[in-house]
Amino acid sequence: YARARTSSIAWNHLATMEETTMTARNTLALTVAGLLLMAGPALAQPTEIRIGVALEPPALDPTAGAAEAIDVVVYQNVFEGLVRIDQTGAVQPGLAKSWTISEDGLTYRFALNEGVTFHDGTAFDAEDVKFSFDRLLAEDSVNAQKALYAPISAVTVIDPMTVEFTLSRQDGLFLFNLGRGDAVIVAPESAANNGAEPIGTGPFAFIQWDRGSRVVLEQYGPYWGEAPALTRASFVFISDTATLTNALLAGDVDGTNNFAAEALAVFENNPQFKVLVGSTEGETILSTNNRKEPFTDLKVRQAMAHALDRQEIIDGATYGYGVPIGTHFAPHHPYYLDLTDTYPHDIEAAKTLLAEAGYTDGFSATLKLPPVAYARLSGQIIASQFAEVGIDLELINMEWAQWLEDVFANKDFDLTIISHVEPFDVGIYANPDYYFGYDNAQVQALNETLNATTDEADRLALAQEIQTIIARDAVNGYLFELAQTGVWNAKLDGMWQNAPVEGVVLRDIYWVE
């Protein structure tokens, strides 16, 4: 635009100068050429980004899968919820521009934004909201966080731009949960195919998925909100750290939201890159099959807890970037209780507990590891630590889809290592059907009370009581909170340093001169 406007003004002026000499004409031509050169760089400013990510999502529908890799690509990019979570973890308006809450805390009425369309051109309205939550709560729903929305007893369409939620009990996290990827709004016309061809209302539309290689998104022209600076984004799947390092250095990708800590030194002092180190909601645990012997025995689980040397694991698997945890809660959260001393590293105590449980000579078990560096590295270190107390671990490396099927879905495992990146997810310990199989009536009752409580002081006390019980029961081996270590082209800005929810949000990212 700058080039066209400058050229038009200059040459129109030239045409009116009937008495101008050739010298003046040449001077003007040079001036115009200079203006064109000055305008050129602004027009050449890149608007595309290529992001390297470690894991390819198994599908692209965040309402029908548990993998974080899904939200990394589509959350707030392709799909949107009634509200959205910003990079501070606060709830902001989304498809709903405002809402009111009844005095008893049981009725939420949302006023929807007008002029919103899905990427296939169909209009968004309150019926789509009702459809999305009826689908989420249906008996055959495969939503990974369905339990979070159990308090919803009814979704009522008041008019095309107004929808009302009725809750069976108060829910202190209701608005926050509406901002998760699990609660994005989908259309009845396209919902069934969202796994392969996602159609949402977000600022970016799905273009293509080259399996094993990349997913490509492009800016959606009729987007109802503020248009993002980027016009195109490619999520490139690169699981190998060395390959991703080379891709960054060669400029084949422009950044990554979570780079392997062991290779960060390559970029920390390189002016062509910026390294962003922040926090995540990723509680990294040695997840234990509580349904399966010998792990049904509390003394065995306590012995394993004593055998763990967290600092050695953090130093070896995260190169010092992880934060030690003693329970399933993020240390940056105001409800967090430091319980890292519940079972301090103590080899003799571990051996004694194993002997009391009838395993004087130890036992053998399998440790199934997903294809992420923190899990593979932690697995090797933990195998060495457990060997000191007589526990012989067979390490089994798995691809992501296989881990989701065998471990998460079919519960076919002894031990595994995984980061649980869902925010405020201590409630999974109140679900006996969850993959690690912890069944404690006291925790279930406390969690039910917590969910129905809105007073902050009461919520803190309840959350900390749950944390204490699951730490004492050594349900899992609590290792560290995963750090977010992003590496980006130095000319990019607007990336989230912290990760209060899963996803790489594109709307804020832009290139700087």
Topology:
Blueprint: H1 2-15, H2 22-43, E1 48-53, H3 68-74, E2 83-85, E3 91-93, E4 96-101, E5 107-112, H4 126-137, E6 152-159, E7 162-167, H5 174-178, E8 204-210, E9 214-219, E10 232-237, H6 241-250, E11 255-256, H7 265-268, E12 273-288, H8 298-307, H9 310-317, E13 323-324, H10 347-356, E14 363-369, H11 373-387, E15 391-397, H12 400-409, E16 415-420, H13 441-451, H14 456-472, E17 477-489, E18 492-493, E19 510-511
Characteristic terms for this protein:
single chain; 513 residues; alpha+beta; 4-stranded mixed β-sheet; 14 helices; globular
Tell me what you see in this structure:
The longest helix has 22 residues, at 22-43. The protein is α+β, with helices and mostly antiparallel strands and 513 residues long. α9 runs antiparallel to α11 and α13 packs antiparallel against α14. It has helices at 2-15, 22-43, 68-74, 126-137, 174-178, 241-250, 265-268, 298-307, 310-317, 347-356, 373-387, 400-409, 441-451, 456-472; strands at residues 48-53, 83-85, 91-93, 96-101, 107-112, 152-159, 162-167, 204-210, 214-219, 232-237, 255-256, 273-288, 323-324, 363-369, 391-397, 415-420, 477-489, 492-493, 510-511.
